[in-house]
Amino acid sequence: DAKTTQPNSMESNEEEPVHLPCNHSTISGTDYIHWYRQLPSQGPEYVIHGLTSNVNNRMASLAIAEDRKSSTLILHRATLRDAAVYYCILSQNAGNMLTFGGGTRLMVKP
Amino acid sequence: GAVVSQHPSWVICKSGTSVKIECRSLDFQATTMFWYRQFPKQSLMLMATSNEGSKATYEQGVEKDKFLINHASLTLSTLTVTSAHPEDSSFYICSAGHSYEQYFGPGTRLTVT
Question: Which of A67, B23, B30, B80 has the lowest tally of Cβ within 10 angstroms?
């Protein structure tokens, strides 16, 4: 699977939007972009995924660059419960194992 | 959504003993499950792929005789850490794919004393 690059950590204020970037310059045409997050002492949970078009769901939005070499996870209003490590992962098949990079640790300040 | 459970959620064992961790898909069938290990402040590392009815596939550097995996049914995979040592202390997490998502268990924290 192609590699992704994310900032180690980011800070946000509660109730404000958060934009979490991910670079994946070696993405292949069949790679989906997946985002998972891991709250402290828990297993990861699915956030969102996309291929080419921007995606929205109840948790977040995913903005994908036109050349697909980068993407941004958008949390529209950060809450304290959103404090977690966010992982951007490329995979051709969600049924397959996921390769986790370092992720971005998001800290939310009240 | 689909749910994956793990049991136990935490376990403390003495060095040299074996520990079994169960991973169950509660409302869907999973022919394939994955086992990960996570050390403090590190990311998840895939240990092995568990295949129902056949042998598990282990990642490079993971000893198959030490980490025994059994996937006897479509809803249950077990990981047995044999002859555990303090360096095996870690957070073990399983996952299974369903639809377009991977569903992860809540993890099992193993402490070997």
Answer: A67
Is the Cβ of B28 closer than 8 Å to some Cβ of chain A? no
Q: Is B46 in Cβ contact with A99 (below 8 Å)?
A: yes
Structure tokens belonging to residue A28 = 């292949």
Contact state of B103 with A46 under an 8 Å Cβ cutoff:
yes
pLDDT at A64 over 90: yes
- CA–CA distance from A68 to each of A48, A51, A77, B76, B101 (Å)? 16, 8, 25, 37, 21
What are the backbone angles phi and psi of residue A76, rounded to the nearest 5°?
-75, -35
Q: Inform me whether the C-beta atom of residue A53 falls under 8 Å from chain B C-beta atoms.
A: no
> What is the biggest distance separating any 2 CA atoms in chain A, rounded to whole angstroms?
40
pLDDT in tens, B8-62: 999 999 999 999 999 999 999 998 999 999 999 999 999 999 999 889 999 999 9
pLDDT tens digit string along A23-48?
A: 999 999 999 999 999 999 999 999 99
Answer yes or no: are the C-beta atoms of B107 and B11 closer than 8 Å: no
Put simply, the answer to whether B107 touches A96 (Cβ < 8 Å) is no
Q: Looking only at Cα atoms, what is the longest distance across chain B?
A: 40
Prior bond to B40 cis, omega within 30? Answer: no
Overall average pLDDT of the B66-86 stretch:
95
| Neighbour-count burial of A96, counting CB atoms closer than 10 A to its CB (0-12 exposed, 13-18 middle, 19+ buried) | middle
Q: Does the pLDDT at position A95 exceed 80?
A: no
Nearest CB to A97; choose among B4, B34, B107: B34
